[in-house]
Specification:
single chain; five-stranded parallel sheet; 16 helices; 2 domains; six-stranded mixed sheet; Rossmann fold
Length: 386
């Protein structure tokens, strides 16, 4: 079992709240984490027909059977159970009474908003971060190996084959998550959309172009993008702007949250093939942004992530805002940094209302702190995000 950074925080929080919710994409390690940090809890899988049937037909009896210290896995499968959990925990007043896990953010979050507000602490568990892999001594020293494999825990088991496993993951997502939890009739068309979108990772989201390329309506594309976001496969990174400056971009950028999945969708069959792929720059940027999001979630960091871009195309790939401070990041996949690698960020800095630190993250091995900014190797990213 690879130690997850969120584990200690979740265990500590369970001493102060009646319920803990562990959310995240399918196969990110939620069940394993819950059963590891709460080994004495009764485990109940709500995807098993007999458990689901009892919870649906007689929720009171179900909660009497599992009255306390239980892990309810895939709890979004029985959404009306949440209102009964509210009553149960209000009556019992037991801290750490239930640990809930769910892959589908959309069902779970809407139910929590209605029934469990103030009674549950929510944690988002991403696939494995590079920091966690380093701690477990399972990380790859080669950049392209690390990006190509991605972060799903199953891929770090002996004899795991990323191409086979990720292909199965995509098929499972289409057949189980999409077909069961949406009104999408044409799964083949949605599959085409998913593959097409992988080629747009790291780009400004253009719904109209996507709709035209696939041959469906703007509103349909918008709903499909939303479905991917709330199921934990992508992130829409919002632009940073102050006072609604008309010269700044207001449209978000789209990032997949696992680069192994991106490589599988794009048909990139090996780390060596990735190293010369035309989209390596965008895929490297995607890896950096996803690792940043993992860091913020794992460490419960309050920093808000954005990007900055004006109408001329001048851009900071990543901007982290922490209270009165801003950190700007340029992201380059090249192994050698450009001579004036902070020049663009210095110019952008003049447009910002707060003090900022300047950083270049690149595909090389050396990390240096210099006057005016930092040169950061991809391998050392997690040590420069705090």
């Amino acid at each position: 079992m690879i130690k997850r950074i969120l584990g200690n925080t979740i265990k500590k929080t369970a001493k102060t709240m009646p319920m803990i919710g562990i959310l995240g994409p399918r196969q990110s390690g939620k069940t394993t984490l819950a059963r590891t940090i709460f080994p004495d809890y009764t485990y109940v899988n709500l995807e098993q027909p007999e458990n689901m049937r009892l919870a649906e037909d007689d929720p009171i009896k179900f909660l009497e059977k599992y009255s306390q210290y239980a892990i309810l896995d895939e709890v979004q499968r029985v959404p009306h159970l949440f209102s009964y959990l509210q009553v149960k925990t209000d009556e019992d007043k037991i801290d750490g009474q239930y640990i809930l896990t769910g892959s589908q953010h959309f069902l779970m979050l809407s139910s929590i908003t209605q029934s469990l507000a103030g009674r549950i602490a929510l944690f988002n568990l991403y696939p494995l971060s590079h920091e966690e892999l380093i701690t477990a001594k399972l990380n790859y020293s080669n950049l392209y190996d690390q990006i190509w494999h991605g972060g799903y825990p199953r891929l770090y088991e002996p004899k795991a084959d990323p191409k086979i496993w990720l292909g199965s993951y995509i098929q499972s997502y289409l057949e189980r998550d999409v077909s069961l939890l949406s009104t999408i009739d044409n799964l083949k068309l949605f599959d085409n959309f998913l593959h097409l979108l992988a080629g747009r990772t790291g780009q400004i989201l253009n719904l109209s172009t996507l709709a035209s390329d696939i041959g469906i309506s703007h509103n349909t594309i918008k709903s499909w993008v939303h479905l991917l976001e709330i199921s934990g496969l992508i992130k829409l990174l919002e632009p940073y702007y102050v006072n609604l400056n008309k010269r700044l971009t207001k449209t978000p950028k789209i990032y997949f949250l696992d680069t192994g999945l991106v490589c599988r969708l794009l048909g990139i069959n090996s780390p060596n093939e990735l190293s010369t792929h035309p989209l390596i720059g965008a895929i490297f940027e995607t890896w950096i942004v996803s690792e940043t999001l993992k860091y913020l979630s794992n460490h419960q960091d309050i920093a808000k992530p954005y990007f900055w871009r004006d109408r001329t195309g001048l851009e900071a790939d990543l901007l982290l805002e922490r209270g009165s401070n801003i950190s700007l990041f340029e992201i380059k996949s090249a192994h050698t940094p450009p001579a004036d690698y902070l020049g663009k960020l210095e110019h952008i800095q003049t447009h910002l209302p707060k003090p900022s630190s300047l950083n270049l993250i690149y595909g090389g091995k050396e990390t240096h702190s210099r006057t005016g900014g930092n040169l950061i190797s991809w391998h050392d990213l997690h040590t420069h995000l705090s």
